[in-house]
Design brief:
Bound molecules: pyridoxal-5'-phosphate
Distance between the termini: 82 Å
Oligomer: single chain
CATH architecture of the largest domain: 3-Layer(aba) Sandwich
Radius of gyration: 25 Å
CATH topology of the largest domain: Aspartate Aminotransferase, domain 2
Order of helices and strands: HHHHHEHEHEHEHEEEHHHEEHHEEH
Structural class: alpha/beta
Shape: globular
Helix content: 40-55%
CATH class of the largest domain: Alpha Beta
Strand order of the largest sheet: 1-7-6-5-4-2-3
Strand content: 5-15%
Number of domains: 3
Number of strands: 11
Largest sheet: 7 strands, mixed
CATH superfamily of the largest domain: Type I PLP-dependent aspartate aminotransferase-like (Major domain)
């Protein structure tokens, strides 16, 4: 029997719960209010962070107020502040403020969306979300699909489905134990194809060398003629190609492959066409960008991550699979204890039959609430703002003597290099300096610029490698970032570059 004011003797009473809750809400509200003034990267020694959490497993319980004290004292200060407007690392959505409330509610009802009966509203909300996402980007909205922990698991779900659908190899039965088989191959652009594809090939035990890297053009998009030649050669060699992956917004330069042409190749050869739009597929929501994605609607599957450019907090990936029955072919399994709750009507379907997870959280709630909150128009405005910021960054880089560009601005990820003007001239006149030494110097210089700006706390960004050269990279994946933030960070990169170059140049035995 529940005690008055609390669900059981083992829970808080309502007053205590409210007090803890109000304190937590204050903490969250203060956090958002002060986010602009925080160092984006933690200002503490790693040893201090390790020491702060170096405690033994508690034998006795602790007062929740003290636990919240520890959160305030250590967890928040020792975080990297992805919600900052000046966070440009990796591809991390900034976190929309309705989502922490949604997550609290999802944890409260604690539905397991693995099955319809344990989660009727949770299942329906997830189904609605995948259909809304499809509709938003111009993919057929009667699609199958599901939410995943992220892009890697979305790609995994799509590629396993592709593999089971397009090859004769019976992986569910004999699995690896069957030995006489061809090499099953999949194809993705060489420079920008995402590493998660290699990880998935590995997880599927296809071997990492199943991933065939197709040459790309100067704009980093896949060379379709080269793809066709590779397919011909591999088939002639006895390999069994089963899937081509097009990028819709690539990891370094936001490149979008010619999706329509890839769809043609796949249709002609009966290959599965997957679009990895983890970063950029949602750009298709914006009418003036839409034509760049022509052909995405023909894909068998699309990966699209709300925890990236829809700014939903972790974790929230999504995969759309045109034919839901094929997901069942890939994932359905039988277990009597699960059958116990199986639905009687077509509406009552169980996500555990359509994806890799059995137990699944209610991650759809934060997406559903945020999609309703902004609406398509609100989201379009935010996406346009990110693209404007990337274009502005490109203009700043082009107009500055000490930067060189490596790409046209596409969506929201932009890479560029710090190269002092005189070294640009030296590179154009190779005999003047040993080229290898200049390149090494510039690689180290670009890395050091990023390290120092990150350590200063002003901004978080990363470097990447573009055609084997260390390059600055900014992923403008925050709904909070403004043109002023871009200018502030760009100025800091320029000043830091000039200062380090001045300090280093003579020691590097390069012309001063
Ligand atoms: C193009 C692309 N695909 C897949 C992924 C993997 O996504 P996740 O990190 O959510 O697993 C990423 C991550 O940045 C990506 O950029």
């Amino acid at each position: 029997m529940a005690t008055h004011g609390k669900p059981s003797d083992n829970d808080f009473d309502s007053d205590q719960f409210r007090e803890l809750g109000y304190r937590t809400i204050d903490l969250i509200a203060d956090y958002y209010e002060g986010i602009d003034d925080r160092s984006v990267y933690v200002q503490a020694n790693p040893e201090d962070i390790v020491a702060a959490f170096d405690e033994s497993l508690p034998e006795e319980g602790t007062d929740p107020e003290l636990i919240l004290d520890a959160v305030e004292e250590f967890v928040i200060p020792y975080a990297t502040h992805n919600p900052s407007a000046r966070y440009f690392g990796f591809v991390m959505g900034s976190g929309t403020p309705l989502a922490p409330l949604a997550d609290a509610i999802a944890a409260t009802v604690n539905m397991n969306t693995g099955g319809w009966h344990p989660a009727p509203s949770g299942t329906e909300i997830e189904r609605r979300c995948t259909q809304w996402l499809a509709e938003a980007v111009g993919y057929p909205s009667d699609t199958g699909g599901l939410l995943t922990s992220g892009g890697t698991m979305a790609n995994f779900t799509a590629l396993l489905t592709a593999f089971r659908e397009r090859t004769d190899f019976e992986t569910t039965g004999p699995g690896l134990q069957e030995t006489d088989r061809p090499r099953y191959t999949l194809y993705v652009a060489d420079h920008e194809g995402h590493s998660s594809v290699v990880r998935v090939a590995d997880m599927l035990n296809l071997g990492r060398n199943a991933v065939q890297r197709v040459p790309s053009h100067d704009d980093f998009t896949i060379d379709v003629a080269a793809l066709e030649q590779m397919l011909d050669a591999d088939q002639a060699n006895g390999d069994e190609p089963f899937c081509v992956i097009g990028q819709a917004g690539s990891i370094n330069v936001s490149a979008i492959d010619p999706l329509d042409a890839l769809a043609d190749v796949c249709a002609e050869r009966d290959l599965w066409f997957h679009v990895d739009g983890a970063c950029g597929a949602v750009g298709a929501m914006v009418p003036e960008f839409k034509s760049r994605y022509d052909g995405m609607e023909r894909a068998n599957s699309v990966t699209l991550d709300p925890h990236k450019w829809l700014f939903i907090p972790y974790e929230c990936g999504a995969v759309l699979i045109r034919n839901q029955d094929l997901l069942a072919k890939a994932f359905a399994m039988d277990a009597s204890y699960l059958r116990g709750s199986i639905g009687e009507t077509p509406e009552e379907f169980d996500y555990y039959e359509f994806g890799p997870q059995m137990s699944r959280g209610f991650r759809a709630l934060k997406l559903w609430m945020t999609l309703k909150h902004y609406g398509l128009e609100g989201y379009r405005a935010l996406l346009r703002k990110s693209v404007d910021c990337a274009e502005h960054l490109d203009t700043l880089a082009r107009n500055h003597d000490d930067f060189v560009t490596v790409q046209e601005p596409n969506l929201f990820i932009y890479s560029f290099r710090y190269v002092p003007g005189d070294l640009q001239a030296a590179l154009a006149d190779p005999p003047a300096v040993p080229l290898a030494r200049v390149h090494q110097y510039l690689d180290e210089l670009n890395q050091r610029i990023v390290d120092e700006v990150v350590q200063s706390g002003l901004a978080f960004l990363t470097t990447t490698s573009i055609h084997d050269r260390r390059t600055l990279r900014m992923s403008i994946c925050s709904h909070r970032t403004t043109i002023e933030d871009i200018e502030t960070v760009f100025d800091s990169l320029a000043e830091t570059g000039a200062r380090i170059d001045e300090e280093w140049r003579e020691k590097a035995s390069l012309p001063v």
